[in-house]
Design a protein that fits this description.
The complex is a heterodimer of chains A (738) and B (100). Chain A is mainly α and 738 residues long. Chain A is 71% helix and 3% strand. In chain A, strands 1-2 form a two-stranded antiparallel ribbon. In chain A, strand 1 and strand 2 form a beta hairpin. The longest helix of chain A is centred in the C-terminal third of the chain and has 47 residues. In chain B, 78% of the residues lie in helices and 0% in strands. Chain B is built from 3 helices and no strands. The mean pLDDT of chain B is 89. The chains are: A mainly alpha (738), B mainly alpha (100). Chains A and B meet through helix 31 of A and helix 1 of B.
Chain lengths: 738, 100
């Protein structure tokens, strides 16, 4: 290991925020409420911003250094400890920490560090202007930096053990942050739900890791377990089960069917937390661990692990459609985005499943392409979703402030509770700042936010040339390529193709309901953008999303998937190649597929959304030109269409979608049946058997002592008598013995 | 020279008298005296046995026992004094704090 490389100091990336955690917490406790702390330090926000900035700079330096090298992974071991057997030989490395950097790490490192930084800027605008948060923001920022530290550490770790440790750190912080408004029962419930649901997955992850540890002679570090010789040595069936267990952990963390129930409730946390969980950190962790498995699939026996790859893809396909369906009816702005996150992550899982299948069956080239497409989608989704959440936070924030202005008389008790209980949507006296039923026509009033939402939605939908389009096409194409080889893949491949159209519908629906048409409430008329901290990250991310074409041009997709060597071609050639590859593919099947996907997502989905929810703005209100056309178009489509919104809204499907396809009820019922039943059984066992046993001992000894007590008369003469008798007995005994 | 067997017999009688007195009397001081009586019976037994075997060890034990008995009496009387201070009596029937 040569001395002076940046990578040697990569440990600082997670270390900075980790160390800032206690600092912010204790300074916050000491200086809470003082003017300097509130005004200049933003209750810890500035400290957090500084360390996140430092982490981002370090991350960029590390990434730059790695990019210059092209190719293989960088490994730097910080410390090792060894297990000494009695023979005196070092047999097993049990504990050590190091940095492992390859393309995958670089990509996630950038996403995490960059978004954490931007979300931090956003938080200062969002958290510090609400009186409800007064005097506890230091807690928010402390947990925030700890969360970021967990994610950064997880992507940099050089072994599955450390990955797991940081993974759990994130689990803890998600619990704390989702339950930030702990005095609200729904938030406390959501925090518990998120924690327990991911815990179910984590149990399986631990089982998987223990199995791996067993198979690889006590090694969990990547350098050892990814060694082709070692992979070839282990039992392939067992390996598949171990990886499957780890995949269940990923399902929990990334909120896939059937462990998805926590994600929508996680919206109870403050909006920056939603952005953090859904874009930058938590949900990407599950994807990361599945993507990390790639070398196993590459090196294992041909076809040995394909069942698992198929399962991954099918789980992805099911989640993609299911989440999109539920998103159709959500009225809560953030919940639409939550389901959209689930759906998009499911795309990535399907893409990863395809990549893993291809890798395991010897199609290394297209496997690398599928892998790259999936990771590129992760990148695009993270950028777009981070932006969408921050934009939604901006909308909610401004709506709430406008509501405060409008209802200034007599509604002062509403000060700051913009997260009102969602179940009270229809109460007149309870204004819900997150419900899209209270919005409408905001395009002219929140120009920056509307633009950001517009671009973000287009990226998620996959409008050609913008952000997610490049990667989504890649995923769909990969899935279909696998489907031609393995018939069972037709299921996920078809599902995600349908999902593309559904994405087009629900994202457009969200945008048009929020920004187009007439304001639906008086409050929406008074909205305007206030704090400068919120638009900055929105603008940055808008350009980031639009600029995905640059990355596509640099062959980011290929580069990400290729763990052996790097590609860099000329930028414009790259764009030209990507363009012709997507729009003029020589393979007729793929070409048709591309246009079907574009047609579904660009035409069918948005058109339905426009027909149902479109509409022009108020008289005299004018949106920015790049959005005005969409609003005009939606108004025209809406006028022409003969759809009846109410028929759909009253259908039983919509009703069951409102109830999230009854998953929560089923889980609750199952838990009631199983857990409560088991608890009752345990209670009987406890009271009858264990208590019975203990109580018998107790009552017997009490009875015995009660009788013995009669002997203690308290009279000295009796004691003398007993002593004499005792002596006599001893004497007799001794006599008998001799 | 008296036959040690007679001395031994006297010691046994003294011991039984002491034991009977310790059982039956109420007055703590009398009980203490009875205990002393038993101790001295044992001393006598020591001396008798020493004479019988022609071994001085028994005599030495007897001297030790007398010294220890003196200490014991001092402690015993101190206990009775403090007992009288608290209970205004030294009747053993009245003092039964350890009952049950």
């Amino acid at each position: 290991m040569s001395g002076s490389e940046i990578i040697d100091y990569a440990i600082l990336i997670p270390l900075f925020p980790f160390l800032a955690f206690p600092v912010i917490l204790f300074l916050g406790r000491i200086f809470n409420g003082t003017p300097t702390w509130v005004k200049n330090v933003k209750e810890g926000g500035i400290i957090a911003l500084t360390v996140m900035g430092a982490s981002l700079i370090m991350a960029l330096l590390v990434i730059k250094e790695h990019m210059n090298k092209v190719g293989a992974a960088d490994v730097f071991t910080w410390f090792e400890s060894s297990w000494w057997e009695s023979s005196g030989e070092i047999t097993t490395k049990v504990f050590g920490f190091g940095i492992y950097i390859d393309h995958l790490t670089v990509m996630l490192l950038f996403v995490a560090a960059f978004l954490c930084f931007l979300i931090n800027i956003f938080s200062i605008g969002y958290m510090n202007t609400d009186s409800i948060n007064d005097n506890r923001n230091h807690r928010f920022y402390a947990e925030f930096v700890l969360f970021c530290s967990g994610m950064l550490g997880m992507v940099l770790a050089d072994s599955f053990l450390w990955l797991f440790i940081f993974w759990e750190l994130m689990g803890l912080c998600s619990y704390l942050l989702i339950g930030f408004y702990y005095e609200r029962p729904s938030a406390a419930y959501a925090a518990k739900k998120a924690f327990l649901t991911t815990r179910v997955g984590d149990v399986f992850l631990v089982i998987g890791l223990v199995m791996l540890w067993n198979m690889f002679d006590g090694h969990l570090d990547y350098a050892y377990v990814f060694d082709p010789e070692n992979i070839a040595r282990v039992d392939q069936g067992e390996l598949q089960i171990a990886l499957g267990m780890m995949f269940i952990g990923a399902v929990g963390k990334s909120a896939q069917f059937p462990l998805h129930v926590w994600l929508p409730d996680a919206m109870e946390g403050p909006t920056p937390v939603s952005a953090l969980i859904h874009a930058a950190t938590m949900v990407n962790a599950g994807l990361y661990i599945v993507a990390r498995m790639f070398p196993f699939f590459m090196e294992a026996e041909i076809g040995a692990l394909s069942t698992l790859a198929i399962v991954i893809a099918i789980i992805g396909g099911i989640t993609a459609v299911m989440a999109a369906l539920i998103a159709f009816v959500q009225m809560d702005l953030k919940k639409v985005l939550a389901y959209s996150t689930m759906s998009q992550l499911a795309y990535i899982f399907t893409g990863l499943g395809s990549a893993l299948w291809l890798a395991n069956n010897g199609y290394d080239d297209i496997a690398a392409f599928a892998m790259g497409a999936s990771l590129f989608h992760l990148f695009n989704h993270a950028m777009a979703k981070g932006m969408l959440f921050m934009a939604s936070g901006s909308v909610i924030h401004e709506i709430h402030h406008a509501h405060h202005e409008v209802a200034h008389h007599g509604h002062d008790d509403h000060d700051g509770d913009h997260h009102d209980d969602h179940h009270d949507d229809h109460h007149d006296d309870h204004f819900d700042a997150q419900s899209m039923e209270n919005m409408g026509g905001l395009a002219s009033r929140l120009p920056i936010t509307a633009t950001a939402m517009f671009v973000g939605s287009m990226s998620i939908i996959g409008i050609p040339l913008i952000g997610g389009f490049w990667s989504k096409e890649g995923i769909i194409a990969s899935a279909w390529k696998v489907a031609l080889k393995e018939p069972i893949f037709f299921l996920p491949a078809t599902l995600i193709l349908i999902g593309a159209g559904m994405t087009g519908f629900y994202m457009s629906r969200m945008w048009f309901m929020t920004f187009a048409g007439k304001p639906k409430t008086e409050v929406a008329e008074h909205v305007h953008e206030q704090t400068p901290w919120i638009p900055i990250p929105l603008v940055v991310l808008t350009f980031m999303t639009l600029g995905a074409i640059v990355f596509a041009g640099m062959h980011a997709g290929h580069w990400l998937g290729d763990f052996e060597s790097g590609h860099y071609t000329s930028f414009f050639d790259g764009i030209g190649y990507e363009m012709s590859h997507v729009f003029l593919n020589p393979d007729l099947f793929l070409l048709i597929l591309t246009y079907v996907a574009i047609g579904l997502s660009l035409v069918i989905g948005p058109t339905f959304a426009m027909a149902l929810y479109g509409g022009s703005l108020d008289e005299g209100q004018k949106a920015k030109p790049w959005m005005q056309w969409a609003i005009n178009l939606s108004a025209r489509v809406n006028n022409k269409s003969k759809f009846d919104n109410t028929a759909w809204a009253n259908s039983s499907l919509a009703d069951s979608l409102h109830k999230r396809l009854h998953f929560d009820e089923i889980y609750d019922a199952a838990i009631m049946k199983i857990v409560v039943g088991f608890a009752n059984l345990s209670a009987i066992f406890d009271s009858k058997f264990i208590d019975g046993f203990i109580k018998t001992i107790e009552s017997t000894s009490q009875e015995a002592s009660r009788r013995l007590r009669a002997l203690t008369t308290g009279s000295a003469r009796d004691y003398i008598m007993m002593t004499a008798l005792g002596t006599l007995v001893i004497f007799l005994l001794l006599w008998g013995v001799t | 020279m008296i036959d040690p067997a007679w001395v031994s017999g006297l010691a046994a009688i003294l011991f039984i008298i002491g034991l009977w007195g310790a059982f039956s009397r109420k007055n703590a001081i009398v009980v203490l005296m009875c205990i002393e009586l038993m101790l001295n019976a044992v001393n006598l037994q020591f001396v008798a046995a020493a004479t019988h075997w022609g071994d001085v060890t028994g005599w030495v034990y007897a001297v030790f026992a007398i010294a220890i008995a003196a200490a014991e009496v001092a402690i015993g009387l101190a206990i009775f004094l403090s007992m009288y201070g608290q209970h205004e009596t030294i009747s053993l029937d009245e003092v039964n704090l350890l009952r049950n």
